[in-house]
């Protein structure tokens, strides 16, 4: 297909930024929301994680729906739903209504990544590496804008105005998308109900069990939900392997390029989830920082993400994307734990200054890994299937949900080394996975080996 021009490209990247903004805009005023709704640190994290958990559950179906009904139409409808849910969040009388509205926003936001990726891949396939770097940078812009925007609006007009602002942005983008972005050819992907159901129940059970444990739920119930999720995934593997109408050929999902890119994407989102929730909680409760002050501190991570993504594409041209991925994961194996060390410094100036520096370094690593993993999955054979992209994004969102759940579970212990040590261990494990074995086999047109 012929590329439609710059404005549709900007609108699509803006949708990606808005999707990230949907998650991060709540982080800076998180303490103000907790105080107004009389919620504990553990409970208020649930208002953040419910959004992501909903995205996890609906991502595969969103990928299928985007391919079946057209990425543009489905994305526009989802943006409208996001705006309505934002108004509902602004009117929330208590924590649990807010949690419900945030979950509804998560359902709507699950459409954004796969629909944007499908459209970018259809119109700009000849510039896939640069396009995926721009896509990763747009995620970083959302991270950059979310905390300071949420903090500023909350300080000026109260935390409820944060959701009104987001609703206005969502509605505006829905209009621009409808007017300026051309439709992508609709496909006829198979719908295997048993496969979709077991996949959603499986991943949802594993992530939901950890989230429930993080909320202080009964350990036995959390374990039972997790075991049921693992069982559902086992059933899904058998169903997908034996049924010719499976959502996507299981062999495509274990191909090296797709598997390594998806594992890296999930890991980087888990690390991000810990950094953007635990750090604001600590800064607000330990040092009494306001939402806008917290937003400015966390801006360091997001700005570094936005800047490092396009730079990683150029660096990949020199040393291969695979090496960039290695360096990024190594950075994530060091940055979070180092953040725990500096936050425990005896003086506020040292703690905050050191945190800004390490957030920036961690943001560079996150941006690099996101850009390379996005490029890698779009160059995999599975990228031709909307459902496969949905599964990839499901694992990305699952990583973010796991990060939030880990904060809920570990933060009440008061041990920062435990809170930030989790993402360090995960990044090190993923680096080991990526290093095992040779690079993925080159595809036609590839000049360099990818992840």
Task: Write a compact overview of the structure shown.
The protein has 451 residues and is mostly helical. It has helices at residues 6-24, 30-36, 41-69, 71-90, 95-109, 111-123, 128-157, 160-180, 193-214, 219-242, 250-253, 256-287, 291-319, 321-332, 335-343, 348-378, 386-410, 416-435. The chain contains 18 helices and no strands.
Please outline the major beta sheet. Answer: none
CATH-defined topology of the largest domain: Growth Hormone, Chain: A
Mean of residue pLDDT values: 83
**What is the C-alpha radius of gyration, as a whole number of Å?**
20 Å
Strand content: under 5%
| 3D shape | globular
What does this structure look like?
- Helix 3 (41-69) runs parallel beside helix 6 (111-123) and helix 12 runs antiparallel to helix 16 (348-378).
- By secondary structure, this protein is mainly alpha-helical.
- The model is unreliable at 445-451 (pLDDT under 50).
- The protein is 80% helix and 0% strand.
- It has 2 domains: 6-191 and 247-435, Growth Hormone, Chain: A; 192-246.
- The protein is built from 18 helices and no strands.
- It has helices at residues 6-24, 30-36, 41-69, 71-90, 95-109, 111-123, 128-157, 160-180, 193-214, 219-242, 250-253, 256-287, 291-319, 321-332, 335-343, 348-378, 386-410, 416-435.
């Amino acid at each position: 297909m012929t590329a439609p021009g710059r404005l549709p490209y900007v609108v699509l990247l803006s949708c990606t930024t808005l999707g990230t903004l949907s998650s991060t805009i709540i982080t800076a005023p998180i303490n103000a929301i907790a105080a107004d709704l009389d919620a504990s640190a553990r409970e208020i994290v649930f208002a953040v994680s419910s959004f992501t958990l909903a995205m996890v559950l609906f991502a595969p179906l969103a990928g299928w729906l985007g391919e079946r009904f057209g990425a543009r139409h489905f994305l526009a409808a989802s943006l409208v739903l996001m705006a309505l849910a934002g108004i509902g969040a602004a009117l929330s009388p208590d924590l649990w209504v807010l949690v419900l509205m945030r979950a509804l926003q998560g359902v709507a936001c699950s459409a954004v990544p796969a629909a944007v990726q499908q459209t970018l891949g259809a119109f700009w396939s000849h510039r896939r590496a640069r396009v995926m770097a721009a896509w990763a940078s747009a995620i970083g812009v959302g991270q950059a804008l979310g905390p300071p925007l949420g903090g500023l609006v909350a300080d000026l007009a109260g935390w409820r105005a944060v959701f009104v602002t987001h609703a206005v942005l969502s509605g505006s983008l829905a209009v621009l998308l409808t007017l300026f972005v051309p439709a992508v050819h609709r496909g006829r992907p198979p719908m295997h109900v048993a496969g979709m159901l077991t996949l959603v129940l499986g991943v949802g059970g594993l992530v939901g069990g950890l989230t429930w444990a993080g909320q202080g739920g009964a350990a036995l119930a959390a374990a039972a939900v997790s075991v049921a999720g693992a069982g559902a995934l086992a059933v899904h593997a058998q169903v997908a392997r034996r049924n010719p109408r499976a959502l996507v050929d299981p062999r495509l999902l274990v191909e090296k390029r797709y598997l390594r890119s998806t594992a890296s994407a999930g890991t980087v989102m888990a690390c991000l989830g810990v950094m953007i929730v635990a750090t604001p909680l600590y800064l607000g409760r330990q040092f009494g920082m306001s939402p806008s002050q917290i937003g400015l501190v966390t801006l360091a991570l997001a700005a570094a993400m936005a800047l490092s993504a396009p730079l990683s594409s150029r660096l990949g041209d020199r040393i291969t994307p695979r090496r960039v991925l290695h360096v990024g994961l190594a950075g994530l194996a060091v940055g979070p734990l180092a953040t725990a060390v500096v936050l425990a410094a005896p003086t506020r100036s040292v703690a905050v200054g050191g945190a800004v520096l390490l957030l920036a370094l961690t943001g560079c690593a996150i941006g690099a890994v996101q850009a390379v993993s996005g490029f890698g999955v779009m160059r995999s054979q599975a990228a031709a299937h909307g459902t496969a992209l949905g599964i990839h994004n499901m694992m990305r969102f699952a990583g973010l949900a796991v990060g939030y759940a880990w904060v809920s579970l570990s933060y009440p212990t008061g041990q920062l080394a435990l809170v930030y040590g989790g993402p360090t261990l995960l990044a090190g494990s993923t680096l080991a996975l990526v290093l095992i074995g040779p690079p993925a086999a080159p595809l036609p047109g590839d000049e360099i080996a990818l992840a």
